[in-house]
Amino acid sequence: MCSYLDGTVNLYMRPEEGVTVAVDLDEMRIVGFVDRVTVPVPKPNGTDYSGLQKRVGPALKRIGLVQPDGPSFAVDGHMIRWANWEFHLSFDVRAGPIISLSLIYDAEQQEFRQVMYRGFISELFVPYMDLTEEWYYRTFFDAGEYGFGLYAVQLEPLRDCPENAAFMDAYIAGQDRKPIKMSNVFRVFERYAGDIRWHHTELGIPGKVIREVRPEVNLVVRMVSTVGNYDYIVDWEFKQSGSIKATVGLTGLLEVRGSNYTHNDQIADEEYGVLLAENTLSAPHDHFLIFHLDLDIDSDSNSFVKFVFRQTPVTDRRSPRKSYWSVVSETAKTKSDTKIKLGSEQVELLVVNPGKKTKVGNRVGYRLIPGSITQPLLSDDDYAQIRRAFTKYNVWVTPYNTSEKWAGGLYTDQSNGEDTLATWTQRAMENKDIVLWYTLGFPHAPYQEDFPLMLTLSSGFELRPANFFESNPVLRVIPPGVVEWPNCSIPSVI
Amino acid sequence: MCSYLDGTVNLYMRPEEGVTVAVDLDEMRIVGFVDRVTVPVPKPNGTDYSGLQKRVGPALKRIGLVQPDGPSFAVDGHMIRWANWEFHLSFDVRAGPIISLSLIYDAEQQEFRQVMYRGFISELFVPYMDLTEEWYYRTFFDAGEYGFGLYAVQLEPLRDCPENAAFMDAYIAGQDRKPIKMSNVFRVFERYAGDIRWHHTELGIPGKVIREVRPEVNLVVRMVSTVGNYDYIVDWEFKQSGSIKATVGLTGLLEVRGSNYTHNDQIADEEYGVLLAENTLSAPHDHFLIFHLDLDIDSDSNSFVKFVFRQTPVTDRRSPRKSYWSVVSETAKTKSDTKIKLGSEQVELLVVNPGKKTKVGNRVGYRLIPGSITQPLLSDDDYAQIRRAFTKYNVWVTPYNTSEKWAGGLYTDQSNGEDTLATWTQRAMENKDIVLWYTLGFPHAPYQEDFPLMLTLSSGFELRPANFFESNPVLRVIPPGVVEWPNCSIPSVI
């Protein structure tokens, strides 16, 4: 595919539509050439995003996060310790960050307890909804075909992170088998956004007002990967409460197609894509990210449980109410219990340790709070969909199998779908080492605001303790001190 | 209802179950007394959340947000100006914060443009799933019955907000008709969490690496309201990109019921609630918040549009693909088009100005990106559900009517449901002044970690420009400067 760079550094905005060149990379020779259509190259106006362009508007005043006593975490090789957490952070050329061996210190039981054996992004799938010759095959697997880690960008201190970040390098094998150092691919930092961890004001006690509030400060591991035009920001966030949150932000350049159209009124029949600027169409597409989440709650003998919120009609006049809902627990036993489509019923999904209970007899566990819930919109017999059948359910559960890591197949670009998550045998899985798979989906119908560069759109999920602790684990935790900046003042009220 | 305070300040954790006292408030005299059941009062152990309790664990180091040059916003009476935004913030004893007259400056058109005429929380609904005599009627309307503004708490500088906050007072009418001042009910501050507004690294141009990144800095208006045991944190957040985001955080104390049970094994039949500690049951419940969102996109002549993402099978061999999806636009015309249940199909919901188009012919608009999507779990004939029938759809659209503000009825505690949103006539509404209603739902099945005090659980929605601007509106905006703290250092790597 060819792009024209005149008037912009944004090569994705000026495609030479319909021009395809076949190159023999061994011989470095052009072996074929097709010029299929003649449409204008989109105009460069307003597409250059580089900092050299003229800037407009008043600047916001300086703002920053400071920790005058330094950060509260320690990095020891690949082990990271912060507050009540410790975990291992490693880099994979395919998956990017891998969080493993995560343990949380339980202040009541006075011991470290297992939470997540391993968590990572197993695959990304980005199919475009344009069936023209140069586009129909654009159904990218960004991990398996490109390498989500391979395209990690070098993060810069004080540019895209608060000052209190630590950086970590990674090494990959070069094509000549020599190690290549990738600098600053991870940053680790404490996140404070002015959010409130918990709050209560009690006015109900005569003669007293009790007001308690604690700030939310968390630990974040960040990687940014640029796979072609799109940039993905991946944050793994750890909370003192025991939650692990993963957030993915999508930003970067749109892919667009050159076109004769300069106005919607000229489009009579259906066209693949939306007109974003003169001669510039952009096709709808999806971003699916599937996470491999191997929780080990207090051991690797776990079960997958669905809490169904079920309405019960009341007909026996025991109450003026006619209904209520309660929680019905269903433990996954058969294959069909382990493929979950969310949205139709109100459920909570848990991984529990059936061998361990709290003092009052609840099974200890963690629950998955999903973010965006997306259904695939391709037909089952579409080759693209056959290869990414893992998108068909929002959540899957499999027994742990060391060879079952890559939801889109081990050699993704050669896979016909037969070695993907959707085909893996679902064996008995009560009280076993199980893996949870969650697909985070972003269907993307472009708007003009995404042109030429899309602002970060984020979603993710949370793994939250669910009867894992006997009670609120951070009720008595000492909060961080307050930083007072010497010369600050509150704004004048006119 | 009675509570026992011995051993804790947490009066919600020690209910005297089954004891009901009827009091004549004019005569200040007890006129009735029922002691229906005899169950133990839950133990006080671990339920005191006050700061006087012994604290545990190592403290995190000091962390803070600083703006050495002061904040970038200005407060002029009730008008707030920040970056490209201006809006009016007022206080309502029932709704809490009301955002109105919001305008955004369009740097390309060099004019202020209308976005939201008025946005506020119209009602909160919190029904408990316990049908015993003292509980079945607990189906609270926190705005209409209590006053979400009335229970706003006084926010304290540097305690529950970053240093750069401005505070605003409110006045309400006392029962003697004299004004009562409520201090510091709102705080306004700039939010910086180390997030990335946009990023792109370009590796595709031979001999060059272009890397651009901009930090995300937004303006937030916050109010915290404590209605009995629960505390709600309401954030209205404004972005330079044109987005308005509302986030509600739920925190505070659980309501619990005394019980004879000390272990789950003793519970033979179904019981209302989950055992969280010895003698302490807690019933599932919902939190529904319905937002009144009166968008006026460039005027008050607007239409409601649904973008449906529709799969199209491909059978004509024009492509090796067998399917794709495209966006089908449906403008609401009939009553049934204005009640939306989300979850079953992939849609985007927009308010557009049919009289105004972008240069290439897209209708200017804003879209609603919903957060949690919840269906009610009470039967339609339940009196509680009749009164809160507005929860039956996730989104409603009504033509603007000055008397239709309160989704749960004007005099909520006397309403039988006949004056609520679900009954309002849906008249013609193309190219009219329309109001969008969105219900944010939190079904809450308690876990032991919520005992005695629940950590903040947040959700919300975003109103995002959708072909409102000709292109990305912040591409060339000057980013805020970097704050370098003099004595900072990155953590030592061991």
Automatic annotation (TrEMBL), chains A, B:
Post-translational modification note: Topaquinone (TPQ) is generated by copper-dependent autoxidation of a specific tyrosyl residue.
Cofactor names: Cu cation
Gene: LOC115753619
Name of the protein: Amine oxidase
Cofactor descriptive note: Contains 1 topaquinone per subunit.
Xref: SUPFAM superfamilies: Amine oxidase catalytic domain, Amine oxidase N-terminal region
Similarity comment: family membership: Belongs to the copper/topaquinone oxidase family.
Keyword terms of this UniProt record: Copper, Metal-binding, Oxidoreductase, TPQ
Recorded superkingdom: Eukaryota
Keyword Oxidoreductase attached: yes
EC number annotated for this UniProt entry: 1.4.3.-
One Pfam family linked to the record: Cu_amine_oxid
InterPro entries linked: Cu_Am_ox_TPQ-bd, Cu_amine_oxidase, Cu_amine_oxidase_C, Cu_amine_oxidase_C_sf, Cu_amine_oxidase_N-reg
Gene3D superfamilies: 3.10.450.40, Copper amine oxidase, catalytic domain
Record domain Copper amine oxidase catalytic: where: 65-475
PROSITE patterns documented for this protein: COPPER_AMINE_OXID_1 (PS01164)
